[in-house]
Design brief:
The chain is mainly β. The strands form 3 sheets. It has a 5-stranded mixed β-sheet with strand order 4-6-8-11-12.
């Protein structure tokens, strides 16, 4: 007798048994229990050693991996110095450095080679004295096409960025 099979099969009149129906509450609960490692293309080990890291997609292995955060704002190294003679900047760590200089006489400040720093590296240099600071790039490099750049007014500053070949004022 087929009349016993003629039923409206909806979630209202069929018991779930072991086949659970989809509900927003069940999906939300499952997602709340999941971690990024539950995804098939994510690889990282949680914990303090990766605090401050970000997930970045690595095309070479088609996975998301925890890597050191970069880009955006920066936390530049700040150097304060009161040179009495020419000064050489030899550091280029991170992506940006700040130099607060109070020279006791007119000085030249020698910049590292732009190629050594790499494209995008930035220096902020401020003259805290009334003496002139002449910024001198490496060898045949230039600052906005010039062989040097002067900070000759107290509290004057400049921001320099390299393209890996020369320096530019921004």
């Amino acid at each position: 007798n087929l009349s016993s099979f003629n039923q409206d099969l909806t979630t209202d009149n069929v018991s779930e048994a072991t086949n659970l129906y989809h509900t927003n509450a069940r999906v939300d609960a499952r997602i709340a229990l999941a971690t990024a490692n539950d995804l098939s293309d994510v690889s990282y080990t949680a914990g303090a050693p990766i605090d401050g890291y970000v997930l970045t997609y690595v095309n070479a292995n088609s996975r998301w991996e925890a890597v050191v955060a970069s880009g955006g704002g920066s936390n530049p190294a700040v150097t304060s110095a009161s040179p009495g003679a020419n000064y050489t900047i030899s550091t280029y760590t991170g992506i940006e450095e700040v130099y607060l200089l109070t020279p006791s006489t007119d000085i030249s400040v020698f910049l590292p080679a732009a190629a050594t720093c790499g494209s995008g590296y930035k220096y902020n240099i401020k003259n805290l004295s009334a003496n002139t600071i002449t910024l001198d790039p490496d060898s045949t490099e230039s600052i906005d096409g010039s062989s040097t750049f002067d900070l000759s007014v107290q509290y004057e500053s400049v921001t320099l960025v390299t393209d890996g070949t020369n320096w530019f004022i921004v």
